[in-house]
Each structure stands twice: as C-alpha cells, then as structure tokens.
Here is the input.
Amino acid sequence: MNVFKIVDKAVLLLMPLLSPICVIDSHTQGEPTRVVVSGGPDLGSGPMEERLQRFRSEFDHFRTAVVCEPRGSDVVVGALLLEPTQPESTAAVIFFNDVGYLGMCGHGTIGVLTTLAHMGKVGGGLHRIETPVGIVQATLHEDRCVTVENVPSYRFRSSVTVTAPGYGSFTGDIAWGGNWFFLIANPPCLLTLENRTELIATTTAIRNALDASGITGAEGAYIDHIEFFSAPYSSENSSRNFVLCPGASFDRSPCGTGTSAKMACLYDDGELVPEMPWRQEGILGTVFEGSIRKGHDGHVHPSIRGRAWITGESKLLFEDGDPFSTGIKL
Ligand code: PYC
Here is the structure.
C-alpha cells in the first residue's frame, strides 16, 4: 500500500529542506511522536538497514530539521514513513530523535498506526510494520488502543555492576527490546517528575560509565537507554519506571522497548510466564499493558498495548536564509 509521497533526493539536494514537510503529531501515554507523512527523502527500495544507512549518511539534516529545535525538541520522536519492502506489510518506518536513530520504538509504533488510521489509510485489525531491527505486528483495536508485538527480546547479561563517578555503583541487567537497555532496580530517589533533574543526571552518568568501561550490548552495541524501576504507585500496576532516552530526554511514556526488555529479564528470572499480564507504569503514571509469548523460534515475543492521541497536523516550512533550517544541535 503506497501511503507516502516522496520528494526526489535530487530535489532535496538542490533545494535543501525548502520543500514543505507534512507531519502529524500525536502522543502515546504522554510521549510525542511526529510522523512525516510527506516531503521525506528518497531512501531507495532496499532493505531497511540499507535505508537507515542512507538516511544517516545522506539525509541526517532532514532528521535534525524535523525533530530538533526550533521545530521540535529533544522529547520528540520522529517517524519517517516509507514504502514497505514486502507486499504484505502496511508500512515501513525509521524512528529518530534529536541525537540519532532508534532501532524500534514502542510508543512510536502506536503513534504511527494511530496516525495512519487518522489519515484514513488503515482500518482496524492487524498490520505488519517494518523497522530497521525487524518486523513488528501492530493491531488497531475498536477502542483505538494499539497492541504492538515487538521484535524478539532477550537479556544479554545479568547483574552487571558499574560505578558512575560521583553517583555510586549500580547493578543492573543489559537487555534488548528493539533498543539496548541497562535496567536497574534500585533508583537513588523516588521515580517522580519532581525528581527528573536528579534522575536524568544519574542515568546520564551511568550511561557514560558503561561506555567508559566498555560495557556494551551484543557485538559491542552502545547502550543508549537507561531504565530505573521501583514499586508501582498504583496497586493496579506491576512496576514503575523512568527511562533515559538517547540524548538528554526521558520517556514520558512507560517506554515500549524498555517494557519489552524488562519482560524478557522477568521471563529469564522465572517471574513472568507467557500470557501473564505485566502493567508497566511510567513516570507520568500512564501504563502500557504488557505480556509475552514464547515463539516457535524459542524467543520471547513481548507485546505492549497503549493508546495515542493526535495533537496536530502541520506543514514544516523552511524560509530562505533561516539560520536554523536544519535545527539547532544542542
Ligand atoms: O516506546 O520504545 C519506546 C521508546 C523508545 C524511546 C522513546 N520511546
């Protein structure tokens, strides 16, 4: 299904970013997603990893123009809609933020499907969505919630200790949920919005310490998401989290890929079995309903369910001489 209009790369190179870019904004449980619905670069028709590579090397200015200030901010996750590589897929998407690219994005996938429904491009039911790290299945329900069955997730290493100078030692698990996470059970303070400055500083120091110590995900992958857990504030929920995203922002939602990584760890510990509900509360108190399924491939397939709300439809404009047409790199 062709739901996109693509601006030829040559046009973009001749008139960098002068063409309007149409976006639809939404938030999923508080976390924004900006879907680029037209005016995006032509990344070719190759495999998703190849398109991501091309985005990164030839059109990174497009990423910064769309999500960085002054048109966006560090909390906005962008989603570039692309023609899928397989006919049975509804769409392909590459997620990005102010500092780079995401493998997968749970809240963003809910935002993408809700946006496509808002545009009248898709109806209820099951949709395959291609991402650079694999295909996810997203179901649009009658109540407008979306369930995302994420890519297979797993714990890579357990009980890893790292010392963040000035902040102390932290022991956590390294897990994959479509992005790389370091998951820590003992936060230094309550997981509240009021404590966000301390939480951002501590998780940033932990991420730097992991990097400085050479502690990585599989095949040397940089761990760019740091996640603290505590008991939930609502007795209806299973746990509360705070997630530092790549860069300096924190996830306003309970983080779909972070919840997936957490459920993979719980499964490994024998604390979560297939089909058992896991309600992950985020820093705003909003919830992703999660569960896992054990696939025929032997892997844990996590699902998260949440809802997005459309917040705007805009045309991003680029006037001649604008010193910040490609965004402010903070
Ligand atoms: O929901 O997976 C997620 C996510 C990642 C970064 C921000 N949100």
Observations:
- Confidence is low (pLDDT under 50) at residues 1-15.
- The pocket of pyrrole-2-carboxylate is lined by residues 31, 77, 102, 105-107, 245, 251, 253, 255-257 (CB under 6 Å).
